Amino acid sequence: MKVIGLTGGIASGKSTVSRMIIRRNIPLIDTDLLARQIVEPGKPAYKRVVKHFTREILNEDGTIDRVKLGDMIFSNENKRKILNKCTHPFIRTEVFKLVIWNWIKGEKMVVIDVPLLIETRLHKFMNLVLVVYCSDQIQINRLINRENFSESIARQRINSQLPLKEKVKYADYVIDNSGDIKTTEEQVEKILNITKPSSLNWLLSWWGPPILAISLAIKGLLFIVDFF
After folding, report:
1. What angle do CA 116, 90, 1 make, to 5 degrees?
2. Coiled-coil stretches, from where to where (predicted)?
3. Which end of the chain is more exposed for a tag (fewer CB within 10 A), N or C?
């Protein structure tokens, strides 16, 4: 099974590309979704986040106020690193389970959508890396229009991540999402057709994903030991 890492930047259009991949019946592991699930009340990651950021970040119903937490971490790199260390090991564990499950099902390929794929060095475990790209100005304009941010806040959110022009250096394929949806979809279709493994290649690489998954699990455990 071929494991493909998909990444990009905030407002680059990565979610749009993810939906295009899902519509083609290719399994996609959404780490943003996993990040929400692992911090539901009562779960281990939730308890660690609350421990380090206090109950100040909670809504009245006990759930984490993602807007308040986001404002806190995007303006403070140290707090952002603390949050990542609280959550990333648990996200990796879920990715581990989903990769194994898709491998057992006999899927030929699976895409893992990871916003911080390069920053966390997880790109090293992927067979291929796809980066969704657009210019800084397009990112800013999209954030202003989508989230009603001021330009300074939009720039702050973008600057909290590795610049897209740096991420493309790690890419096997770049999806330029600066234009219209049709152009982006054509690029996605072409790349998936090129990268989809044949039945023979799938058989030859059948036991690769477990190695990937075990590596992810070990990396997650080391994070926990190092931090806690």
Report:
1. 70
2. none
3. C
- Write out the DSSP string of the chain: -EEEEEE--TTSSHHHHHHHHHHTT--EEEHHHHHHHTTSTTSHHHHHHHHHH-GGGB-TTS-B-HHHHHHHHHT-HHHHHHHHHHHHHHHHHHHHHHHHHHHHTT-SEEEEE-TTTTTTTGGGG-SEEEEEE--HHHHHHHHHHHH---HHHHHHHHHTS--HHHHGGG-SEEEE-SS-HHHHHHHHHHHHHHHSPPHHHHHHTTTHHHHHHHHHHHHHHHHHHHH-
Confidence at 203, pLDDT banded by 50, 70, 90: low
Class of domain 2-227: alpha beta
Farthest CA pair distance, the chain: 55
The domain locations on the chain are: 2-227
User: Residue type at 190?
Assistant: K
Residue 160's pLDDT band (cuts 50, 70, 90): confident
pLDDT at 208: 55
Residue 210's pLDDT is what? Answer: 56
- Beta bridge pairs of residue 174: 131
pLDDT at position 222: 37
